[in-house]
Write the structure tokens for this entry.
Amino acid sequence: MTALPVTTRLELDPAAQLLPGRNSYSVLIGGSPYVMLTLKPSAAAVIESLRAGADLQTAAASSDVSTPAVQRLARRLLETGLAEPSFEAPSQRGASTSTHRPTDVTAVVPVLNEQRAIGSLVQSLYSAGISHVFVVDDGSTDATARSARDAGATVLTTSGRVGPGGARNAALGHVTTRLALFIDADTLPTGDWLGPLLEAFSDSAVAAAAPRIRSAETGGLIGRYEYARSPLDLGNRRGSVRPRSRIAYVPTAALLVDIEAVRARGGFDAGLRTGEDVDLIWRLAGAGRVVRYEPSAEVFHRPRSTLSKFVTQRRSYGRSAAALDSRHPGQVAPVVASGWSVFVWCSAILGGPFGVVAAAGTALVTAALLERKLDALASPRTPAWTLAMRGHWGVGRQLGSAVWRAWLPVAAVACVFSRRARIAVLAAAVVPNAAEWFERRPPVNPVSFVGMRLIDDTSYCVGVWQGCIRQRSVRALLPRLVNWPGRRNKSRVD
């Protein structure tokens, strides 16, 4: 286990709950995916101390627990998504405690016909203190290379168009610093964007750190929709990045990496023209390295300017699903959910009056079984019913999204023969998207938002099916059924 700096503070997941357990134990529930940890009194005391703002060293001393034991607990909290680290020194809030500096970073920018944007990006990178900038020209037909050289970058060229992954790989052998920043030419870093990423490397287990990629406000319906719901924008909650978690991937529109960790994994898969960033992140996570998402660092990204470019982009994202599944089987499912929750929704929507009764009965049974799974709690009934109903609602939203993002051709055929199928597809179009609008309240009216979501999802779906045909596999279309409520969770922390 890699030790964290003793001055590290942990910020518990806002949704995590520390509840009374049986026989003087406590239970911590939350995380991503959802997990339950049973804690001895000493471990619970450490949690309370960390929650109050203590660093690891202080938490160990105040709880009379050994520092190695606190380190093990801290790493467990990070691995489960129950907490996130902060390396800021308590006595110097706002001061950097990272051992890395901007001069330890080399930037790598893959480009294709970015004459207008590349100069200002290179200048902004040097202004941030980065030691060197490599611009990899992947067959541009304009004056991109000249503009990059004029701004002070070293220009590398590829032999033929090898795609963004291959272009980044072309620069790997030229980087001599410990850290490399992969960044796209259509981005604009803002504020103190590099500092928080450097801080993440205070944990020596970290192999990569990503900022929040926000869509620039450009006006128009597409610009306003992208500003509210860009696929590159992963929100304002920091966290660890790994498959099937709250943050399953980060894009390489901007990504700071340990260059040796990337070289050890063979760099990017140049056979992937899209999804190469997701593949790299999953390979790093699979090798036991930590990837962090740090939204306090922000980089802006230019949205697509026309509807045709918007559709093309979303379709290209969808095409990567089957190729990623071939490399990471089971990680690209359109739905990851309890099989019982899936049964509840399918019964309620497609089963008629009898199906509604069966769905209600199944929902009640799952809540009762979840009480057994939470039997480490002193009073499991209320948390079990709350989690069960919240889980069923979440799965319903997943299924509604998957109808349009993955299963639309099958749903369309079903609609020809079944009135219930038509109602289900219409509900999948409206209910999840309207619920999202009410949660986000984006600068787009609800009708336009739902319409753009359907264009977004349908375009992605077309790409998914194109990728499946190309890979001759339908696995990227299949749901993954997990987390059956009757299974007991035996995680315990002493």
About this structure: The mean pLDDT is 90. Residues 446-471 form the longest helix (26 residues). The longest strand covers residues 290-301.
